[in-house]
Specification:
By secondary structure, this protein is an alpha+beta fold. It contains two helices and three strands; from the N terminus they run βαβαβ. Helix content is about 25%, strand content about 15%. The structure holds iron/sulfur cluster (SF4).
């Protein structure tokens, strides 16, 4: 599973890293860190990754199952 956070959509609400801090983290300005870089979700963190993506009001987090 991979996730990508779109920097053009991320508005820094912080819901993703509040709900799933094991997957998402803030940068210094409160936006989700590691934006625009597809990254692998670590084994065992898939449910958190999905929860965080679903919590994003901007739809900024894309999850791919490959
Ligand atoms: S919830 Fe969405 S808009 Fe808010 S910080 Fe996370 S990715 Fe960005």
């Amino acid at each position: 599973m991979k996730l990508t956070i779109d920097s053009g959509l991320c508005s820094g609400h912080g819901r993703c890293y509040s709900i799933a801090p094991d997957v998402y983290e803030p940068d210094d300005e409160g936006f989700a860190d590691h934006r625009d870089v597809a990254r692998e979700v670590l084994p065992g963190h898939e449910a958190s990754a999905r929860e965080g993506a679903q919590s994003c009001p901007e739809g900024a987090i894309e999850i791919s199952e490959d």
